[in-house]
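Table S2 (text version). Query chain:
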Amino acid sequence: MKYRVLGDTGVFVSELCLGAMTFGGGAQIWQTIGGLGQAEVDSLVGRSLDAGINFIDTANVYSTGVSETLLGRSLYGKRHDVVLATKVRGRMGTGANDVGLSRLHIMREVEASLKRLDTDYIDLYQIHRTDPVANIEDTLRALDDLVRQGKVRYIGSSNLPAWQLMKALAISRAEGLERFRSTQNYYSLVGRELEWDTIPLIQDQGVGLLVWSPLAGGFLSGKFTRDMTGEGRRKTFDFPPVDKEKGYGIVDALAKVAKARGASVAQVALAWVLAQRAVTSVIIGARNLTQLDDNLGAVDLTLTDEDLEVLDDVSRVPPAYPLWMDALGSDRRPGEVRRFDQATQPPAKK
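Corresponding C-alpha cell output:
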C-alpha cells in the first residue's frame, strides 16, 4: 500500500480508502447497495487493515446510522490504527431539523456519530452536500467549534460546486476559521466533469481530493458491456448517471488494456484514477472479500503512458464554456501552461 498526504494536513492516508456505504441495510436503497451485517463488516475491515489501508470513510446517513455502528464495533481496539471519516447533512429523522447544515443539526449529529462510532473524536468530518437554506458561515463556525473542542481533527466537504467550495475557503480565511482540507467528489473514466473547475481549484488551494464511485456504481467493474447487462446494484439502482453509449466504448478500451496487462477491468479503471495527479485517495466499496481483493490489486498496477493515452482519448470530456475559450491558446506565451491544462494533462513520468 502507498500513502499520500491529505491536503496540507501532514496526515498520510492510504491511496485506497475503504468505503462503508455497503455496511448495514434497512430501507430498500441501503439493502440494494449493501445490506452487510457485522460478520461481513468485520471481515472486510480486517482484510483492509491487513492490506495496509489506514483510511475508512462512512456517513451518518448510510443505513441511517447503522453503518457507523457496525464500523465502530469492527474497529474496537483498532481505532487509533485508522484515519476515520464520516459526514453530516442527510436526513436522520422525520423532524424539520433532522436534516441540513445548521449549527443545531451539526451539533446534534456529531454527538450521535461519536456514540455510534464508539470514539471520542472524528479525524475528518465532512459536509455531505450543500444546504441551500443554511448560512455557510454558520456552518463553518459550527465546524470550527468542533475542531477547537477536540471532537473533530479536520473538516472536509463533499459534492460542492467549485464556486461554493471556493466561497467556503474564502470565508474561512477571512474569518480565521478552520477550512476544508479535502473535498470528496465523484470522479471516474465515465465522469470527468470534475476536471473543468474543481480540480484546478483544489490544486491551486492545496485541498485534497477523495474520489467516490471510481467504478461508476459498478459500470466499470467489467460486468457491463453492450452485450451484457451485469449484476449488482446498478441493475436496480442506476447511479451515478452514465452516458452508456460512450461508456461502453470506455469499457471496451479498459478491457483491451486489462487483457494486455493481465489485470481486471476494475483494476485498470481504479489505476487510472490513482494516476491522476490531483487525487489523494480513492474510496472503494465492496460487498464481499472477492470484490475487495480485486480492488486492492489496483495499487500494484502502474499504467504505462500508452495505456493512459488510450483511456484518456476515449473518455475525455470537451471543456464547457468558458473553459474552451481559455483552451484556445492563441494568446499564450511560449511554454505557458494554464490550470485547465494542468488538470487534464497525464501525470508526469516517474
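Notes on Table S2: The two ends are 17 Å apart (CA to CA). The CA atoms of residues 192 and 316 lie 7 Å apart.
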